[in-house]
């Protein structure tokens, strides 16, 4: 049975690799090799980087006049005047779908899988221990032993860019404001292969950072960072899987960062765009609101210099 399970995994990896190559050709996303198995199964690092200027307020040569007409930023409500203003705070924005029987899994098992994925999203995107302290223990503890063993070497070793599609970590030297991130998105559960449940998650997380101490921001996007995370989690349970493979895995991954520090992002961390002194970025080609929309198509271009 164990040898059969290993054969099934090898076949799955081959088919997953074909799907990953096809997706890369379509979206021009960036693939980062982690280890052979991790790259084939996940494509971690597929996040594109999209930079947005705070506002096009100087584009028509009236920058000073326009700035004077913009009200001051309220740091107690940093998301005001952004599309995230009315979103739920923190974990309240991550809701599980109504439980129902799916394939061989009972309604209770489906509910349990969705709840575990919710806990995983909270641990990977909202938990201060990981966000600020870069401690992945809670997140990794929710995954299958083999998945945990593959991801562990990516933390604290300089390999953080290979994990950034799955987690959010704040760059050293940057500070979040004392408000919860804003969250919007959806979760749905579907049947996978034999003894598998696939939980599709598609969320946008908005983080409010302390403002640039050398400037007076007039636009909240001077210090708000947006992360889109379109991630599949796969629950594997049953005799076809070895003990180390049973539990929660990661599947297809996509997403982007918006209004970010490109330098920090390339190192696997989040920081506001003002941290990139001296860098030239490409202006966004879509309306600002598009990057806050979890249903929008993933952009194929990057605004960060290569």
UniProtKB/TrEMBL annotation:
Spans traversing the lipid bilayer: 21-47
Annotated region described as Disordered, given as residue ranges: 280-306
Keywords: Membrane, Transmembrane, Transmembrane helix
Compositionally biased region (Basic and acidic residues): 280-290
Protein name: Uncharacterized protein
Lineage start: Bacteria, Bacillati, Actinomycetota, Actinomycetes, Pseudonocardiales
